[in-house]
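ok so I'm stuck.
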Amino acid sequence: MPAAEVDALPDYAHALSPDGLALGAQGRAAAAALPKADTVVAVLAVADVSWHRVTLPKAPANRLRAAIVGVLEDALLEDTETTHFAIAPQAVAGQPTWIAAINRPWLRGELMRLQKAQVFVDRVVPASWPDDPPQGHFAESGDAATADAGDVSLTWSHADGVATVRLGGLARA
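replied:
not stuck anymore, here's the structure
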């Protein structure tokens, strides 16, 4: 692979935990240079997931995707054929629940890139999800050494959804 193509490959933030609770190490690396782990969990950025509150359709398992597409079709910005849907755990048909929508080709491409580098993902989870009690976290984008207030955002998760606000624009908002 030419050097220009290698430089263009994304690097991934990673964190290692000896027990699943405490942080042992963290960093950034290209897929092929990621440290080996017993379990690999891919965490999707807040901006990669859209959340939709719907009443889960009563449909057999083999028709559930079509039923979800029917409920969400007008709410999605992307074509439903290129969207992967994930239903909240313990969702009950006929009851309100959260559905996560993710761009399927992008997700598949990222998982394939990791797999080619011998990094096999066991689970894919969102960085934030609608939940109660509310919780929030701050994130920096870009180079931390040159970050200014416009590069910091607050993500707030609560029972009514997930919102992200850039702190540089907070005073104006």
